[in-house]
Amino acid sequence: MKHLLMKTTAGAALCLLGGTAVAQEVTLTVESWRSEDQAIWDNTLIPAFEESHPDIKIDFTPTAPTEYNAALNARLEGGTAGDIITCRSFDGSLPLYNKGQLADITDLEGLENFPDFAKAAWSTDDGANTFCVPMASVIHGFIYNREAFDELGLEEPETVDEFFAVLDAIKEDGTYIPLAMGSADQWEAATMAYTNIGPNYWKGEEGRQALIDGEAKFTDEEFVAPYEQMVRWTDYMGSAYQAQSYSDSQNLFTLGRAAIYPAGSWEISGFTEQAFFEMGAFPPPVQAEGDTCYISDHTDIGIGMNGNTEHPEAAREFLNWVASPEFAELYTNALPGFFSLSNAEFEIENPLAQEFMSFRDNCESTVRVASQILSRGEPNLWNEMWVLSANVLNESTSPEEAGQQLQDGLASWYEPQQN
Amino acid sequence: MTDATTQMADRRPTRRRRRRAGTAHIVVFLAPALLIYTIFSIYPLVESLRLSLFDGLDDGSAVWTGLGNYARLLFDSNWSVRFWNALWNNLILFFIHMVVQNPLGLLLAALLSLAPRFGGAYRTLIFVPTLLSVVIVGFVWELILSPLWGVAEGMLSAVGLGFLYAPWLGLEDSALTAVSLISVWQYVGIPMMLIYAALLSIPDELLDAARVDGLSGWWIFWKVKLPLILPTLGIVAILTYIGNFTSAFDLIYSIQGVLGPPDYSTDIMGTLMFRTFFGQQTQIGDIYMGATVASMMFFVILVGVTIYLVGVQRRLTRYEM
Amino acid sequence: MTDTPDTSRSRRGRSKSWGTAATVHAVLLGYTIIALFPVIVVILNSFKNRRGIFTEPLALPGPETFSLEGYSTVLSEGSFLLYYGNSLIVTVVSLFLILLLGAMAAHALSEYRFRLNGILSVYMILGIMVPIRLGTVAILQLMVQLDLVNTLVSLIFVYTAQGLPIAVFILTEFMRTLSRDIKDCARVDGLSEYRIFFEVVLPLVRPVLATVAVFSMIPIWNDLWFPLILASSDATKTVTLGVQQFIGQYTVNWSAVLASLSIAILPVLVLYAIFSRQLISGITSGAVKG
């Protein structure tokens, strides 16, 4: 076997030499989990790039999100992965860099266009090496049916009490299901419920850092309280929400049958297309009036290059373009709801996206609590959070137990949490 | 069905003749299958099993750990809880298939073998779900059972049983049963066809003889047909057993996803192996632990098949002769 | 084991009492409806617009809800014709190899006594027990070395390897029950071992071959995994993969999703309708002979 391997490596090297000498035009293949974006890449982004770089062709070949990690890993191990790789943030990509499967791009000129907090999501822990260009973050909050609100004379709630008053009013009226949320696809419960409303309790970055430093525990009040609020949600969710899947929730809201949708901003483009009513958005309600609000503004998607690409020059050129203000504007407006992390200033056209963007003016941003460092061990904290958040909504695990289990799992391998 | 003694007598001279024919044709018959099978199935699998004896380092290299991974899987509580849970769920899945799918397949096959009018049409149509991709089956059943679409709820209400409706796929107590029954719905055609073919191959003269003896249809089925198709039932059982570890994964994966929700109640060896091997979201795939889970799956299947081959099958074939 | 006149079966059918026949039909019809209901729901709703799907999922498409928007989306976006071609080539070639090579191997294992027989029988069965998917990484590396990535050939090899063990297992079981008399007669007549296999054994196991064919076909046609890993390029995509990606792309557009599902279902049904007649006649003629 080893013999065969060596022979083919030699063969590949030969091909590589021949390739660069003869070929004028290279094609870069882009790996991504965003299959919804196929049309945007084909019709907007790729033509724009190819116009300024006629010698590089781009082929966007997404894999469904559920299969992305598995398929990408297999292709990386087998050596058939694309030249350009879409990166999940933090620990989702760091191991790929450590294995040399993502190339070091610290010296890429375009990275200057990004603030440090954005680059941190795709850098080593000490910040010395960066391996992906930040593409976008997603902001969490609530999208609501503005017509339903007008009809019932409701206003955007600012505090938790107001929020439940609004839910009560909708429930009493009976026309709409108050909250479009299900627990069948567990990630919804973790992403759109727990880490959506949680930062208001654990004060965003402050609480997240405290966990990393070992100064706070998941059993602390501020990490259990969001679960307690979620238990209260269940009275306002559709009947049989235990089997309600993510796409069920989406349909429920866009068909006008539910009034409020706990959301991630990535929904904006789809909802704008599907819903026939006007929509508005509000950030997660705070506990008492005047409290600082915190939002989950999660660095979600980056783009890097395969460590073993045959066209490193072309790949760098492409990444530089992705880092440019031109791309930032094209991308954010083609995909309202994916907010560019670039320093570049530009106008966002979609009104709903503008509303989400405006959360940043009044609220402090933080990333999902389990995304950095804390999900590096076994059991995987983010997986546990999916399962337990869904359990809390299903009322099969109490908020205290959920906090306890998260803490036990984390403390079993994470040293700063072990004393 | 020739008399056993004549068959024994037949065999001796044949063997001698066979030996004279040389072995070249045996090689020709076996080589192509063995070659393709070895290169594209056994070699990659052995490669995977080999990996279960190694542990990965951060830089992508591997170190030998012997049985360390197995010890982790069976005794480290992070792993063992998931492992035993998955194995248990697999056994429940197998049990439901044995008491629902296979008897149903036998019933349908028995009825079809009576050659009713439109028998061909029934047979063809009942087999249709088996042909469908799990992508389709998963999507369709999720829709039908979905509280949002209200098909299941509406149909139950129409016959006054609306109160029975529950979001089965989302409840810990019922999710695994619901998924198993969807699987039964999809695959019942396989035991049906296998048993049907076996029933048809029973020589008519045997049945005629039984009928001359004055046995009723019911008795003929129990006393004559059933014993004769026992080897087929044995094959069906062992295929069901293996299928629960291999192909059941696809259905659960497409309906419930890779974490076996809610709260791991539909997590089986296949999903455990898949997410360990290939990772999911921030959990990075660990091919070494994944290979370990895969190897355990292999040993569990091996135990079942051995029991079948040593215990059940030997008795069945003797009975048949 | 000898030929019996075909009439006995129909005679039996006629002599049955009316009540039994009614019960038989009730059970079979009942189950047929259960089997077809979900498929019909999908096809029915694929002809409706999104509102119609949600408000009255069980109603026939009416003037207000009838819509072909789903189909027009599917046909304008996906190259489904090409995907069908790919699926068809992969399935047919793999099936042919599985049946031919599997029957040859099963014949060797069940007919001849040689030293390695026992070991090889067990060896061939091993593959049933482990999903070949576990070897994905090694398979992919192998395909890279053979320069077969993004070709249909890579899928054919994998599916053949995947289908062989179960084919050999089932065929060996059935071949062991075949009477030796016929083969020995042929040997006395001076037929070569190859002619005995092709002219005597193969016709005898035809019904089993048909059964194995149907069972081997299903996982190949429906597989999602290997097309994803080995041949996900647009030119080599199979229908199942195409549909899966289409669903991923149009999560909320259910008219389009249901239309794509219907498009994936229909040819399978048509092929099966044609094929099943062969299958059934294979089973019945084999039964009479066997």
Automatic annotation (TrEMBL), chain B:
InterPro entries, sorted: ABC_transporter_permease, MetI-like, MetI-like_sf
GO terms for biological process, alphabetical: transmembrane transport
Assigned GO CC terms: plasma membrane
Protein name (database record): Sugar ABC transporter permease
CDD domains the record matches: TM_PBP2
Compartments (UniProt record): Cell membrane
Keywords tagged on the record: Cell membrane, Membrane, Transmembrane, Transmembrane helix, Transport
SUPFAM superfamilies listed in its UniProt record: MetI-like (SSF161098)
Domain ABC transmembrane type-1: 87-309
Family: Belongs to the binding-protein-dependent transport system permease family.
PROSITE patterns in the record: ABC_TM1 (PS50928)
TM region(s), chain numbering: 21-43, 91-114, 121-141, 147-166, 178-199, 219-242, 287-311
Membrane topology of the entry: Multi-pass membrane protein
PANTHER family: ABC TRANSPORTER PERMEASE PROTEIN, INNER MEMBRANE ABC TRANSPORTER PERMEASE PROTEIN YCJO
From TrEMBL, chain C:
Compartments reported by the entry: Cell membrane
Residue intervals of the ABC transmembrane type-1 domain: 84-275
TM regions (residue ranges): 21-44, 81-106, 118-140, 152-175, 196-221, 254-275
PROSITE patterns: ABC_TM1
Membrane topology label: Multi-pass membrane protein
Gene Ontology biological process terms, A to Z: transmembrane transport
CC terms in the record's Gene Ontology section: plasma membrane
Family annotation (InterPro entries): MetI-like, MetI-like_sf
Annotated keywords: Cell membrane, Membrane, Transmembrane, Transmembrane helix, Transport
Family to which this protein belongs: Belongs to the binding-protein-dependent transport system permease family.
Protein name, as recorded: Carbohydrate ABC transporter permease
Source organism phylogeny: Bacteria, Pseudomonadati, Pseudomonadota, Alphaproteobacteria, Rhodobacterales
